[in-house]
Design a protein that fits this description.
Elements (H helix, E strand, L loop, with lengths): L6 H8 L2 E5 L5 H11 L5 E12 L3 H9 L5 E11 L10 E2 L3 E5 L3 E4 L3 E4 L2 E7 L1 H4 L4
Parallel strand pairs: 2-7, 2-8
Antiparallel strand pairs: 1-8, 2-3, 3-4, 5-6, 6-7
């Protein structure tokens, strides 16, 4: 994470984190599920993930919702598999804004479906903090 003065790190360490369950399905079953449900959309299996809920003003939230988004981003410390080879296994990834979250483990953005494997956390953070991950 790139922080200039530690405010973003302080925000993350002092916030409330809620444990969330991803999927425990096997790799083959996950690939079959996602390719059936989203036949032409790239997908990325991730673990050690956090869903960040963007801390927005009411006006900002309305703008996000009008654009067809939810104020969620996923940040994962470990890519397991990316269907297009954009992200290498073992690397980290941060998504764009969510358009829907299905069954608690299919995190869909405009361009990609992220499959949340294993347990993760959910926490609120500012956009500055969310975008500080590099």
């Amino acid at each position: 994470m790139n922080t200039d003065n530690g405010r973003e790190l302080n925000e993350l360490t002092s916030g409330t984190k809620v444990t969330k369950r991803g999927t425990s399905l096997g790799l083959e079953e996950l690939i079959a599920t996602v390719t059936t449900r989203y036949p032409s959309k790239p997908f990325c299996l991730v673990r050690n993930w956090t869903i960040f809920i963007a801390d927005l003003t009411p006006h900002e939230l309305k703008t996000v919702e009008r654009a067809g988004h939810l104020p969620f981003f996923v940040y994962a410390l470990e890519v397991i598999f990316d269907s297009e080879g954009r992200f290498q296994p073992g690397n980290w990834v941060r998504s764009s804004m969510c358009v829907q979250l299905i069954e608690g483990f299919l995190f869909e953005t405009r361009n990609t479906v992220y499959i949340l494997v294993g347990d993760g956390v959910e926490e609120k953070a500012s956009l500055k903090t969310i975008f500080s991950f590099q």
